[in-house]
Amino acid sequence: MKETLIQINRLKDIGVYTISDIFPGLEEKPILLEIFGSADRVPQVLAGTKIKVIQRQTYMFVDNDNGTISIGKKHLQESDDKILYLDIIHELVHVRQHLEGLNLYDRSVSYVDRPTEIEAYAFTVDEARRIGLNEEEILDYLNVEWITAEEHNRLARRLNLKV
């Protein structure tokens, strides 16, 4: 019997929710212990982190002011389970970074060169491999429209992916 990767409540309308409202059972994933460093911290951070479903055409991002994760309603409703799972893992690394007082959006550094992005993508790539994505699928996941082909290659090399 195939294990369900993650449960996703795709029926949520525009509004603010808990992580477990959107991703029930996420707290059981071992990667969260790696991200947050202790079993006690995982439920504490998840309970204190909100997800805002927004109408805007976007993926997910963390508000640098309050640590809220925003997700575009269309992304929530239509994206593949693996993509949503990897996205929430990536954003939870940013939540931890936010709680540590790091600037998630340092515009003086290119997106693919920001230490916060490199760390978040490193966790995400490791988890992508663990759930069975191959190098090509991972490279495709990293290929977002706000970076150039050269930046994509640079990020991939930093994450030890074959370009």
Architecture blueprint of SSEs:
Blueprint: E1 15-18, H1 19-22, H2 30-36, H3 41-48, E2 50-54, E3 60-62, E4 69-72, H4 73-78, H5 81-99, H6 115-130, H7 135-142, H8 149-158
Parallel strand pairs: 2-4
Antiparallel strand pairs: 1-2, 3-4
Helix pairs in contact: 2-5, 5-6
Helical residues, percent: 40-55%
> How would you sum up the global shape?
globular
What is the number of helical segments per DSSP (H or I, 4+ residues)?
A: 8
The strands making up the biggest β-sheet line up spatially as 1-2-4-3
Class by alpha and beta content: alpha+beta
Order of helices and strands: EHHHEEEHHHHH
Primary descriptors:
163 residues; alpha+beta; 4-stranded mixed β-sheet; 48% helix
Give a structural overview.
- The protein has 163 residues and is α+β, with helices and mostly antiparallel strands.
- It has one domain.
- The protein has helices at residues 19-22, 30-36, 41-48, 73-78, 81-99, 115-130, 135-142, 149-158; strands spanning 15-18, 50-54, 60-62, 69-72.
- It has a 4-stranded mixed beta sheet with strand order 1-2-4-3.
- A hairpin with a 6-residue loop joins strand 3 (60-62) and strand 4 (69-72).
- Helix 2 packs parallel to helix 5 (81-99) and helix 5 (81-99) packs antiparallel against helix 6.
- The chain is globular.
Structure summarized in a few sentences:
The protein is an alpha+beta fold. The chain has 8 helices and 4 strands, in the order E-H-H-H-E-E-E-H-H-H-H-H. The N and C termini lie far apart (34 Å).
